[in-house]
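Model the whole thing, not chain by chain.
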Amino acid sequence: MSFLSVEGLKKHFGGVKALDGVSFSLDKGEVHALVGENGAGKSTLIKILSGVFPHDEGSISFGGEAYQPANPHEAKELGVQVVHQEFNLLDHLTIAENVSIERMPRSRFGVLDRREMNRRARMALDAIGLTDIDVRAPVSSLGIAHRQLVEISRALQFRSKILILDEPTATLTERETSRLFDIVAGIKADGVTVVFVSHHLEEVFTICDRVTVFRNGKTISTDKIEDTTPEGVVQKMVGRELLANDRVDAQQLPKGEVALSVKDLVTTANPSGKGVSLELHYGEIVGLAGLVGSGRTEILRGIFGIDPIVSGKIFRDEKPVRFSGPRDAIAAGVGFVTEDRKDEGLILDMPISANISLANMGAVSSSGLLQFASEQRRARESGQKLKLKYGKLSDPVSSLSGGNQQKVVLAKWLSRNPKVLLLDEPTRGVDVGAKAEIYAILKDLARDGVSLLVVSSEIPELMTLADRILVLAEHQIQGVLTPAEFSEENILKLAYGQSQTGGDKLQ
Amino acid sequence: MTSQTMTEPVPAQARLSVRSVLQNAGIGLALLALILFFSVFTEHFLTPNNITNILTQITINLVLAVGMTFVILIGGIDLSVGSVMAFAAVVAGKAITLPGFGPAEAIALAIVAATVTGVACGIFNGVVSAYWALPSFIITLGMLNIARGAALQVSDAQTIYSFPFAFEEFGSSMVYGVPVVFLVALLLVLVAWFILNFTVFGRLLYGIGNNEEAVRLAGHPVFWYKVAAFTICGFTAGIAAIVYMARLNISSPIAGIGFELNAIAAVIIGGTSLSGGRGSVIGTLLGAFIIGVLANGLILIGLSDFMRQMITGVVIIIAVVLDYYRAKYTSK
């Protein structure tokens, strides 16, 4: 029986239709997935349900009554809780203080009742199985995964009827994700309805009962999980069939000369003291797999001259080089698409064109003076090449969707025609359609002879892209897999440092 | 999300300047309203004499604020400009009164001495705060004391005077009623505007204010750019010292106390964000005018200097609140 139902919901922001006819329903005690590309309307719907802003047209009924919360507080009172993508925790306060922040217990004189606060926090954490955490510790002492769980426990203590999880696994490792899923299963068993927003279809198919697909502000369909397949869902999300991946022809290309190699490289970020060695050939995509914390990003940062090198050597075209900073690495034809585009990749408030030319100012200036016409032309050309979707080149990058922002980062580096391109999580937070486009761009680059080193937490992504996959654990390469040996199982075994199965153990 | 691939009919730079014009338009309108208000309610506000007065009064603050704009754009602040100005003035005062030079040489020597002193202090501020990634607030607070102490030490806490007549003439000369020293300040504004809008250096200063790490990872020597911004600020403090000497015909080691706050106020009222990355030197020009017009007009209207100070304070707060809304609406 439906418990919350939404009929023909519409929402405009100025001239932009954010929601253009959304209808779906939630059953009591189900886990219901909302999927769709970025900008398809999921976030807007969540904000309406949680009382951030009202809808324009359509109706929502919740428990048989019309539902239109005036503000987030009212939504919470009615039992609708959201755990947001970005954490809303106060780092320097204790876990208990964070859990109780919305309703601090007070003793008779209006003074904070610390004991009661800690007791409630203890109960809240115990309820989701976090018995091993001290509620008096500051939030800053927790890892990302635990912070998320603390948020969930905070949301749950108010007898929630509906718990909305917005991209809860985006920053979690697989092990942490599976713990989260156990907790979700427990919540569901208590009769709470869980709404699960995710880009990861495998997760949707693991824990959800039903899935609703959004596209362009409309709901396309709601299916029971057992009646559909990941491919079917993707097709509905994109509205077309994705190109089957073309890894076969990539295989037939002969490998080029060694573009860059690293021998026994140890950076200040590598605690083990044992070095890493690897070789990148022209025209090849090498994948770098491993759990979070296994030292993947650190290798890229070491090569690019960001983290100081303790020992070991880097060779570019077989000649030893020493990069004392990104400037030297760039001069040697190396580019680095960083993991965090908001903190390291883009200047969000600056125009798209300015971001594209950021690493190549020489090409858009002469004797220090900016040549605006040539900057525009180059930006327009690379925009076309990468199928960038934008309004105007003078718009700030922050106006673009995640996938298009990532394309701007790529464009920035491609404008230098790099010979070696390092990429850290090139499709994080990018929707399915843009992902496929980025894969195509990277493969084209390899075909043109560029040497690529790709770090990714998504194993299927590496298996689609790479010609070889190196698996890291504890800052050491545990093995190298060739395409014939590619499987999640082989990669995970090496990543957990368990066995040599399927890979040539190095050294 | 109604974006689509299409070609650009108008060059983005044109739009960019349209946007910055619109941003400045609000400040310009506020200034216009003030001018209108004082013209209507006071008899002497809009007279040639008074206009000359205002231009003279805002010159030093405008010169300091131009340099301050560079530092604030990269997310820094320079609290030392008032003291550095006094230090530079004292050093230049010593130079200009050295025996054995003709007036022309003495003046040239003074200009070199003032700018070199200012630049040296700026380099120190920039190198120390950028190399150790320390808050420039603290480093320049240190420099505020160092430079003030140095000014007192060098001058023996005495005011230096009896400069060449030509120097005094320069300080009080006019072109069509416009003080030449104001024209110097205006020239600085134009040069700064050009640097910030049309050079790679200027573009990257905005970039550093927005996202230093992204600029660094794109291979730019962020350290030197930051040092350069502080150096420019020190340079304008040196220029301000010369203007000050030429106008008053003295070098006092206790000159310029609190000038840094007025310069910061002009920058902020002019719409430059204290967190860096957003703003313009044209805004700073308007901001300096708003402060100057308020000071002048409120006195003419008969308010005490204390009231003037309170009202200036209120204007600064209004400017920052308006900036909050502007940031909110331009980012959404």
